[in-house]
Specification:
Number of strands: 6
Number of helices: 14
Distance between the termini: 34 Å
Helix content: 40-55%
Largest sheet: 4 strands, parallel
Shape: globular
Strand content: 5-15%
């Protein structure tokens, strides 16, 4: 279903959006769907799963560093080259990188290499070997307060996809489950329900902001990659928001620089502040988000931060 035909607001995205099994994605994703469905999964790999703009880049860098014994020299290579973004080729966004994630995964140079794979796909659209539990790689899910996610996502889409509308209208799309990768709660809750599985770790952006030391220790234990206190201390400094914002290997500045001529305020790392929605979102809209959240998490044990 072409959503632009049924909702004029969706037409303000420069790409055609389509519903795939109830998930809103660019129509170009159809070209990758079969390849992803049939992807042969290596259980040594670590999958970083998230709805967009909830902390996946931060988490991805942390996990790569833990898995690779804090190899700071290796971390100078751009993150998308070190850690494939599964469905990137199907997003139809402006991106100067020619990295083909599926080829990276299928044709890894070292047969023993442990990949850190990023995806924003919900659980039901992951490779069949994962959804059927034939394979059980380590999965780390990162989520974030929905209001802050909406704000960050709005600014990001203006930068990378040329989204043409104001913030209040984007909030309506987000709440109406018509933003790319929506529905939001159908993304978060299945992973929450799997959080007790031995191969699944559920993290929150807010926890990383308030206790990065503790999160690193949890991830290290989950991945069975012991770290010394000294390594953790150095990694905390490396993962500091200001450090990440200035790090060309993770901030995608080179890829996004041409786009910033159109959107000077656009950056992958913008503020990273918990509660930033209060600076732009009206009190009425905040209330609507809170009611929407309460409605979606009722009859679950999920708690919102």
């Amino acid at each position: 279903m072409d959503l632009g035909k049924s909702d004029a607001r969706v037409k303000k995205f420069p790409v055609e959006l389509t519903s795939f099994d109830g998930v809103i994605l660019p129509s170009k994703y159809e070209e990758l769907k079969k390849q992803i469905d049939n992807l042969e999964v290596d259980e040594r790999d670590v999958w970083i799963c998230s709805y967009p703009k909830t902390g996946s880049t931060w988490t991805r860098e942390m996990v790569w560093m833990i898995v690779n014994d804090c190899n700071f020299k290796g971390a100078e290579i751009p993150l998308n080259e070190r850690s494939p973004f599964l469905e990137k080729a199907g997003l139809d966004v402006q991106d100067a990188s020619n990295t083909n994630a599926l080829e990276q995964i299928k044709n890894r140079k070292d047969g023993k290499e442990r990949l850190i794979i990023k995806t924003h796909l919900p659980f039901k659209l992951l490779p069949r070997e994962i959804t059927s539990e034939v394979k059980k790689p380590k999965i780390i899910y990162i989520t974030r307060n929905a209001k802050d996610t909406c704000v960050s996502y709005y600014h990001f889409l203006k930068l990378v996809s040329g989204y043409r509308s104001d913030f209040s209208e984007f909030c309506e799309l987000f709440l109406g489950e018509k933003a790319p990768y929506s529905p939001y709660w159908n993304h978060v809750l299945p992973f929450w329900q799997m959080r007790h599985n031995p191969n699944v770790l559920f993290l929150r952006y807010e926890e990383m902001k308030s206790d990065l030391d503790g999160v690193i220790r949890r991830v290290s234990q989950f991945l069975q990659k012991p770290m010394t206190d000294e390594q953790i201390e150095v990694l905390i400094r490396h993962l500091d928001f200001d450090s990440m914002k200035k790090n060309p290997a993770v901030n995608s500045a080179a890829l996004h620089e041409p786009l910033r001529k159109l959107h000077p305020e656009g950056r992958l790392f913008r503020k990273g502040v918990v509660g930033d929605h209060k600076t732009i979102m009206s009190l009425d809209m905040q209330k609507r988000f809170d009611e929407w959240t309460a409605s979606n998490i009722q009859d679950t044990d999920y708690y919102s931060i």
